[in-house]
Design brief:
By secondary structure, the protein is α/β, with parallel strands linked by helices. It folds into two domains: 9-288, Aspartate Aminotransferase, domain 2, CATH 3.40.640.10; 293-432, Aspartate Aminotransferase, domain 1, CATH 3.90.1150.10. 38% of the residues lie in helices and 14% in strands. The protein contains 17 helices and 14 strands. The strands form three sheets. Strands 1-9-8-7-4-2-3 form a seven-stranded mixed beta sheet, sandwiched between helices. Strands 10-11-14-13-12 form a five-stranded mixed beta sheet. Strands 5-6 form a two-stranded antiparallel ribbon. Helix 1 (9-15) runs antiparallel to helix 12 (279-290) and helix 3 (64-77) packs parallel to helix 12 (279-290). It starts with 8 loop residues before the first helix and ends with a helix. The chain binds pyridoxal-5'-phosphate. Pyridoxal-5'-phosphate is lined by residues 87-89, 113, 115-116, 156, 160, 185, 187-188, 207, 209-210, 219, 221, 372. Pyridoxal-5'-phosphate binds next to helix 4 and helix 5.
Length: 433
Amino acid sequence: MTRNSRYGFETLSIHAGAGPDPATGARSTPIYQTTAFVFDDADHAASLFNLQTFGYIYGRLTNPTTAVLEERIASLEGGRGATCTASGHSAQMLAFFPLLQPGDEFISSRRLYGGSITQFTRTFKKFGWSGVLVDTDEPENVRRAITPKTKAIFCESLANPGGVISDIEVLAKIAHENGLPLIVDNTMATPYLCRPIEWGADLVVHSTTKFLSGHGNAMGGAVVDSGTFDWGQGDKFPSLSKPEPAYHGLTFTETFGDLAYTIYGHAVGLRDLGPTMAPMNAYLTIMGCETLALRMQRHIENAQAVAEYLSRHPQVAWVSYAGLKGNPYHALAKKYLPKGAGSVFTIGIKGGYDAGVKVVESVDLFSHLANIGDTRSLIIHPASTTHRQLSVEQATAAGAGPDVLRLSIGLESIDDILRDLDQALGQAARLAA
Ligand SMILES: *Cc1c(COP(=O)(O)O)cnc(C)c1O
């Protein structure tokens, strides 16, 4: 299906980037389970290697199944192009790779998926990249943290573990006033609930592992470029604006225009760092995208019902869900996620650590595991799992105090979800009595 069409979101989620297979007429996108692609002749091979012809060379750079998914996600986000990767974390690495040199900095919201905090503040240090975390609830903190070394600003649209929403439009304005791109992790919202590019974001990253694949069966990530940021300004982004020795002095911005960032992501990012998405996972994620709208509708409907039920439950001290009136982020939710505030959120259970452990051991329908965005309802007690290395003070600051449970509400019958939570909370209450 061609780009720039006026098709609706549901139509694009099924058709964008795909047509019947040119070789066989297969209607569903085939899994091109191959490592390499045969050249027509030596000239064809040379022009592919020089990036003079679009085509397939070797699976680390591009693959036709993955290319369909890239076009699909770019189109759902309203972007120019996308690069798929092996995981959400590698998408983040690839998103920063064209922008940062050793010694450079980026500013990020400190309300992030826990793994991203570790990646930004510890592992990226080994590349000489500094992730500076600030409280973006006060967006001026971002402006104050900008230095001549700052190359990007990062936030999550709807922050994991939930309840927190970034003011994307304000952050984009601060970024652009300083000649910087805004990168938004849109994993928890998905483009069905929020399209950050429409609010000024320049790049969008995803862990497709979560709602886009949607069935808890395929790791993956994506970097989407809006195609509108000027990478050529000054000397800020030399990877994109200066001649690339590994491609005979080709300059990405001059040669590829608004596709420069996306082509760099494949031709240098995937080529040299290597976190390529497997074609099988691309296929599973394409299948997930086709039902994204339907699944997200049920996810948010069920999550809203669970949040309302738990906010009245005697065993529950608090519920952090932006879809609830009175939540501090409710106004931002109405602006940025008018359809619903996602399906992942945290609650505080009365009875602290032991009660939290008892709930995850007592659920029957819910799965006790470290993931979100599955058809199945999921639960985790961060203090005894993902955040157990931290002190109580550190864990509490990260929103993972001893009483916190994180829920990812699935697509099961709502009565069954509520009954399971109620019986597990009841068992925790009997423990305390
Ligand atoms: C899971 C997640 C990631 C990391 O993605 P992986 O696919 O697990 O590598 C990044 N950001 C957010 C918001 C996530 O939920």
